[in-house]
Amino acid sequence: MTFELPILLNNHFELRKAEIRDFAIHYTTYRDNIFFRQSWDRRISIFDEDAPSYWIYHHNRRIGGVCMEPNLLSSFFLAPPYEDAHSVFIQLKERLILISDSNKPIHAYGILPYQTEHFLQLGFEPTESRRVMIRPTESFELQQLGEGFTVSTPQLEHIEQIAELLYHCYSGRDRIGYPGDNTIEQHTSALEYFFEHNQLDSIRNASSMVYDSENNVAAICLISMWEDWPLISNVAVLPSYRGKRIATHLIKSALNELKDSYEVLRLFVTLGNPAEELYRNLGFYPGLAQTTFKLEQR
């Protein structure tokens, strides 16, 4: 095992390289379970062996940890009784500027609500805030969709139609609902991955697509597996068909289908997306938001 010398910062702070499993145990203990991961083993297994993990020391006492490399900070936590996060972030910012490519922005990932004010004061700007929501699966008595709509299970041969639907659903002001690049090519690539990696019947049958009376795809709800539990990976309704409770029908249908095989269903939502109100009305419980920040160096 290679020993690395401590990285000395200002004001009696320093960074010391951390062994990854020990780091993961401390991170999991002191960090909120914002993704509702279902077990201790699942939570501590999220770090790769080569993760750039460091202990944070102050006056020779360990006070927390962080993952840090050029232009990137993540997985920050503090351990009681230390609480002066602002002083720590000042030192981490100075270190990041020193080691980073000055032609590229510095990104800070997974910043929790009680940490965001510190990053704003240090000149970082938020680029995206998301949260996970969760609810138990449940059997519902479903109402029929309006006349002219038919529901079927999405298949691989539907990728082109679904990609076009998603492109239109996430255009304009609805862009907030999709975290990636809103292009046909991006959606096609994501859908190819979805169909390749979600082949369990229990998951496939929980996904739905809706056709209108002219056989055009009007809505989609795609259910995938993420860390051993089902996840709503995409739910979208064409603007012209919104307000008809189609998304509600599709999500309830998924909860019905999953009931016999899984206990819960999760989803990601971007803060500011009007769909969050729909999810709350359907009984999804919100986890803490996490924000991505960016610091431009030029």
Tally the helices.
Answer: 9
- How many β-strand stretches? 14
Q: Which range best describes the helical content: under 10%, 10-25%, 25-40%, 40-55%, 55-70% or over 70%?
A: 25-40%
CATH fold category name of the largest domain: Aminopeptidase
Report the radius of gyration as a whole number of Å. 22 Å
The chain-level structural class is alpha+beta
Task: Give the overall shape.
Answer: elongated
Major beta sheet, specifics? 14 strands, mixed
Q: State the name of the first-level CATH class of the largest domain.
A: Alpha Beta
Order of secondary-structure elements: EEHHEEEHEHEEHHHEEEHEHEE
Which stretches are low in confidence, meaning pLDDT under 50 for 5 or more residues running? Answer: none
Q: Termini separation (Å)?
A: 39 Å
Rounded mean pLDDT score: 94
- How many separate domains? 2
Task: Provide an overview of this structure.
Helix 5 crosses helix 6. The chain is elongated. The chain has 2 domains: 125 residues, Gcn5-related N-acetyltransferase (GNAT) (Aminopeptidase); 125 residues, Gcn5-related N-acetyltransferase (GNAT) (Aminopeptidase, 3-Layer(aba) Sandwich). The longest helix has 15 residues. It is built from 9 helices and 14 strands. 29% of the residues lie in helices and 30% in strands. With 298 residues, the chain is α+β, with helices and mostly antiparallel strands. Strands 1, 2, 3, 4, 5, 6, 7, 8, 9, 10, 11, 12, 13 and 14 form a 14-stranded mixed beta sheet that branches. InterPro entries: Acyl_CoA_acyltransferase, GNAT_dom. Keywords: Transferase. It comes from Paenibacillus cellulosilyticus. One of its GO terms (molecular function) is acyltransferase activity, transferring groups other than amino-acyl groups. This is Acetyltransferase (GNAT) family protein.
